[in-house]
Specification:
alpha/beta
């Protein structure tokens, strides 16, 4: 893997980004994380987050430390990535009904209102956002993107781990990556 390139895991919230971070760490890429957000019932294996990414619009200094590593950045913040770095983005996709169900369950666990926005409206907002992000990504000359389905990874992780390994230069431990996909955590599966 190129030591100057920044690998980014992105997607909508609850789309499998934490699982992908864990897969990449198991595969041999050092994650840029601070462990401030601890594992909980919603992500029992951890969130793999770095709090400073939330301030990327005003604080980009941390990106120098992200070179040769992987960092998680929600899709809404991708537009703030400066063009003076090269990025390889692994963009997680997941069934919209599962994303909404997972978010609802997380809000219930936290004692927050889970019905503030109807699912149909939230789904439409998310779909519009994803279309905008994909269009933006396609226009960036310093960004390569691979789209990965959480649903498909949970069915059979190996071909996806191999594809990600190829995308990132072919030096990852694919067996270790494959072992990370824990089907017992696939709790909002829609059939």
């Amino acid at each position: 893997m190129d030591s100057e390139t920044i690998t980014v895991v992105s997607g909508l919230p609850r789309s499998g980004t934490s699982m992908m971070m864990k897969m990449l760490a198991a595969g041999g890429i050092e994650p840029l994380i601070d462990n401030l957000r601890e594992a909980d019932d919603d992500n029992p294996k951890g969130y793999f987050e770095f709090e400073r990414v939330k301030q990327i619009e005003h604080d980009k200094a941390w990106l120098a430390d992200a070179r040769g590593r992987v960092v998680k950045l929600i899709s809404a913040l991708l537009k703030h990535l400066p063009s003076d770095y090269n990025y390889k983005i692994i963009f997680m996709r997941r069934s919209m009904s599962e994303i909404l169900a997972s978010q609802r369950q997380m809000l219930v666990r936290r004692g927050e209102p889970s019905d503030a926005v109807p699912d149909e409206k939230m789904a439409a907002m998310f779909e519009k956002h994803i279309a905008q992000v994909e269009s933006w990504l396609a226009a960036q000359t310093n960004i390569e993107t691979i789209f990965v389905s959480y649903n498909e990874v949970m069915k059979d992780p190996r071909p996806h781990a191999e594809r990600i390994n190829d995308f990132l230069g072919g030096t990852l431990r694919v067996d270790a990556m494959t072992a990370v996909a824990d089907r017992s955590l696939y709790r909002q599966k829609q059939t």
